[in-house]
C-alpha cells in the first residue's frame, strides 16, 4: 500500500516540479526560436524581445533612461535584453509549474504573453501593420503546444479505483479473500504496473524534450541564418560604396591640433571608439540600393524623393565636426570628433522650395524620421543659417558604419544629437514646434538644445596616484559653432591658471589643452573650466542632463606620492 500511496501523490514532488519548470523553459525557448524565424521572414524589428524591449524603452521615464546610460554606458541595450530574457525565463518557469497541475492554464499563459508581444510589435512607431504580430503569435502557439505536450505525463496521477467491498459485483468483505497468495501476487503485480507506467512516462518525456530542444535549436539557427542573409545584403551594398572626392574638402587638420600627452583623447575619434547612444535594440542594417529619403511638409513647394545614388553623385562637402550627446554628464565620455562627408542639407531643402522662418517660411521645425520610427526635431532656422548642416554619408573616410547611421544620417554642428543627429534617416517633414512634439520632447526634454560650453580632464584619471614633480594635466573642451577661446585649470582652491590650447581646426571641433603642474605630495582636487569665443565662461552651476544638457565644472581628485 505504501508504493500505491506514493504513486498517487499530488504533483508537488521535487522531481515533478523540476520537470515542470524545465518544460516551461523549453517551451519558452521554442517560442522564441519560432518567433525569431518568423521575424526573419517579416522583419527583424518585429521579434518579441526587440518589440517588448522597444516598448519598455518608450515607456521608461527619461530620468531612468539617463540613469541607465550613466550606469551601463553604451551597453545599456545589452543589459535591457538580458533583463527581458531573465524575466521571460522566470515567467516560463512559473507557467511550467502551473501546467503540471493545470495543463490548459499553463498553455494559455504562453498564448497570453504572445499576445503581449504582438501588441508591442504592432504598436511600435515603425510598424508597417498587422504582419508584425505574426512572429509573437506563431512563437506563442508553438510554445503553448509544446508545453501542453510535455506536461501531460506530469499531471496528477489518477488514483487506482479499488473495488467497493460492499458492491454486489464483488460480494461482501467477509466472502473476499484479501490475504490469499493469489490476491497478494495480483496486488504486487499492480504496483509493478504503476511503476512501469511511470517509467514509461519519464522515457516519453525525455524523448519529447530532446526532440523539442533539437527542433528549437534548428529553428533558431534557421532564423539567424535568414536574418544574416538580409544583413549580408546590406553589408554588400555598403561594401560596394566608394565615396567620391568631395567638391568641398575639409582643410588638413593643423599639425598642432593634436597634443602628444599620454591619456589624452585623440583629436579625431576612430569609428570603433565613437560613442553610440540611441534606442535601437537591433542596429538597422539597410540595403542602400533600396533606401529612399522623402522630403515633404509645410512650405515644401516641390516634395522630393532621393535614392542613395542620387545623394552620392551630388556635390559633397567634407567637414570636421564634434558631436555631443545630451546625456553626457559633466566629464562624461559621450563626445567625439570625426570627419564627416555628405550633402549640404540647405541645398536639398532649397531644391524643395523650403525657406527659413526669418524669410517667411511657414515651418520652424524639421522632423527627421529614422527607419526604426525615431523622430528628432531640428530648428529650421539653424539648419539654414549657413552652418555646415549635412546629410552625412561618410565618417572618417569610409561609408557610415551601420551603428552610426548607414546609409545616411543628419549632422548639425552646435546642436545636441537628440535634436539634430538622426541616424538611419528616411523621412524629413517640415512642420512647426507648436503642431508636433518629437520622441524626446514628448518625454520631457527641451525642444531646442544648443550644445553648452564644456570641458573635461582626461589625464590624470580620478583617484590616480602620480609621483611628485611635474604632472601633465590635459583634456578637451568644446563649444561647437562658437569655438573655444580659453581653458583654465585650478588646483584645490588656488588661482585659475591658463592652460595651453592646441591649434584650432574649426569652431565646430573640440580643442585639446594641457597644463604642466608641479605636483606636491598629498591629496589634491583639479578643476577645469572653458570660455567660448562669445566670452561666456562655462558655468559652475551644476545641472543634470534633463532637460537640455548637463552643466558644471569637471573635477578629479588625485593623491600625489
Q: What Rg do the Cα atoms give? A: 33 Å
Distance between the termini: 80 Å
Weakly predicted, low-confidence segments = 1-12, 166-200
> Secondary-structure element sequence?
HHHHHHHHEEHEEHEEHEEEEHEEEEEEEE
Overall form: globular
Order of strands, main sheet, comes to: 2-1-10-5-6
State which percent range the strand residues make up.
15-25%
Overall pLDDT: 89
Number of helices: 12
Sheet/helix structural class:
alpha+beta
- The share of residues in helices is 25-40%
Let me know the largest β-sheet. 5 strands, mixed
What is the number of beta strands? 18
Description:
The protein is α+β, with helices and mostly antiparallel strands and 561 residues long. It is built from twelve helices and 18 strands. It has a five-stranded mixed β-sheet with strand order 2-1-10-5-6. Strands 3, 4, 7, 8 and 9 form a five-stranded antiparallel β-sheet that branches. Strands 11-12-16-15 form a four-stranded antiparallel β-sheet, with no helix packed on it. Strand 13 (484-491) and strand 14 form a beta hairpin. The protein is globular.
Amino acid at each position: 500500500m505504501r508504493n500505491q500511496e506514493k504513486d498517487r501523490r499530488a504533483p508537488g514532488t521535487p522531481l515533478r516540479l523540476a520537470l515542470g519548470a524545465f518544460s516551461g523553459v523549453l517551451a519558452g525557448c521554442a517560442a522564441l526560436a519560432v518567433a525569431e524565424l518568423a521575424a526573419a521572414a517579416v522583419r527583424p524589428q518585429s521579434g518579441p524581445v526587440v518589440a517588448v524591449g522597444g516598448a519598455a524603452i518608450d515607456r521608461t521615464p527619461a530620468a531612468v533612461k539617463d540613469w541607465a546610460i550613466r550606469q551601463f554606458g553604451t551597453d545599456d541595450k545589452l543589459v535591457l535584453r538580458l533583463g527581458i530574457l531573465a524575466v521571460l525565463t522566470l515567467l516560463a518557469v512559473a507557467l511550467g509549474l502551473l501546467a503540471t497541475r493545470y495543463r490548459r492554464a499553463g498553455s494559455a499563459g504562453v498564448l497570453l504573453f504572445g499576445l503581449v508581444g504582438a501588441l508591442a510589435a504592432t504598436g511600435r512607431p515603425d510598424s508597417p501593420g498587422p504582419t508584425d504580430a505574426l512572429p509573437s503569435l506563431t512563437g506563442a502557439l508553438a510554445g503553448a503546444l509544446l508545453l501542453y505536450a510535455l506536461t501531460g505525463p506530469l499531471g496528477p496521477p489518477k488514483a487506482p479505483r479499488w473495488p467497493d467491498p460492499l458492491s454486489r459485483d464483488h460480494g461482501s468483505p467477509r466472502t473476499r479473500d484479501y490475504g490469499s497468495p493469489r490476491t497478494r501476487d495480483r496486488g504486487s503485480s499492480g504496483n509493478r504496473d504503476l511503476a512501469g507506467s511511470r517509467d514509461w512516462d519519464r522515457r516519453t518525456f525525455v524523448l519529447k524534450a530532446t526532440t523539442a530542444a533539437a527542433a528549437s535549436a534548428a529553428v533558431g539557427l534557421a532564423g539567424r541564418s535568414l536574418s544574416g542573409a538580409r544583413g549580408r545584403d546590406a553589408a554588400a551594398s555598403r561594401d560596394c560604396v566608394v565615396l567620391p572626392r568631395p567638391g568641398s574638402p575639409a582643410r588638413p587638420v593643423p599639425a598642432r591640433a593634436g597634443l602628444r600627452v599620454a591619456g589624452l583623447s585623440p583629436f579625431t575619434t576612430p569609428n570603433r571608439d565613437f560613442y553610440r547612444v540611441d534606442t535601437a535594440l537591433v542596429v538597422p542594417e539597410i540595403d542602400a540600393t533600396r533606401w529612399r529619403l522623402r522630403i515633404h511638409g509645410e512650405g515644401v513647394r516641390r516634395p522630393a524623393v532621393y535614392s542613395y545614388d542620387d545623394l552620392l553623385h551630388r556635390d559633397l562637402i567634407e567637414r570636421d565636426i564634434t558631436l555631443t550627446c545630451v546625456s553626457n554628464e559633466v566629464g562624461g565620455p559621450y563626445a567625439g570628433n570625426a570627419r564627416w562627408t555628405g550633402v549640404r542639407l540647405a541645398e536639398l531643402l532649397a531644391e524643395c522650395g523650403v525657406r527659413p522662418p526669418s524669410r517667411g517660411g511657414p515651418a520652424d521645425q524639421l522632423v527627421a524620421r529614422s527607419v526604426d520610427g525615431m523622430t528628432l526635431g531640428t530648428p529650421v532656422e539653424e539648419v539654414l543659417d549657413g552652418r555646415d548642416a549635412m546629410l552625412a554619408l561618410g565618417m572618417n573616410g569610409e561609408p557610415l558604419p551601420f551603428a552610426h547611421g548607414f546609409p545616411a544620417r543628419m549632422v548639425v554642428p552646435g546642436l545636441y544629437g537628440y535634436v539634430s543627429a538622426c541616424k538611419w534617416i528616411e523621412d524629413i517633414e517640415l512642420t512647426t514646434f507648436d503642431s508636433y512634439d518629437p520622441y524626446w520632447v514628448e518625454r520631457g526634454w527641451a525642444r531646442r538644445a544648443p550644445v553648452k560650453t564644456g570641458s573635461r580632464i582626461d589625464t590624470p584619471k580620478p583617484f590616480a596616484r602620480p609621483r611628485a614633480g611635474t604632472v601633465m594635466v590635459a583634456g578637451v573642451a568644446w563649444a561647437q559653432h562658437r569655438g573655444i577661446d580659453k581653458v583654465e585649470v585650478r588646483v584645490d582652491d588656488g588661482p585659475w591658471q591658463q592652460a595651453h590650447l592646441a591649434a584650432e581646426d574649426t569652431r565646430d571641433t573640440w580643442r585639446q589643452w594641457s597644463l604642466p603642474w608641479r605636483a606636491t605630495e598629498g591629496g589634491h582636487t583639479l578643476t577645469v573650466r572653458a570660455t567660448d569665443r562669445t566670452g561666456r565662461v562655462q558655468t559652475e552651476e551644476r545641472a543634470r542632463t534633463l532637460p537640455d544638457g548637463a552643466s558644471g565644472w569637471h573635477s578629479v581628485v588625485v593623491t600625489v606620492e
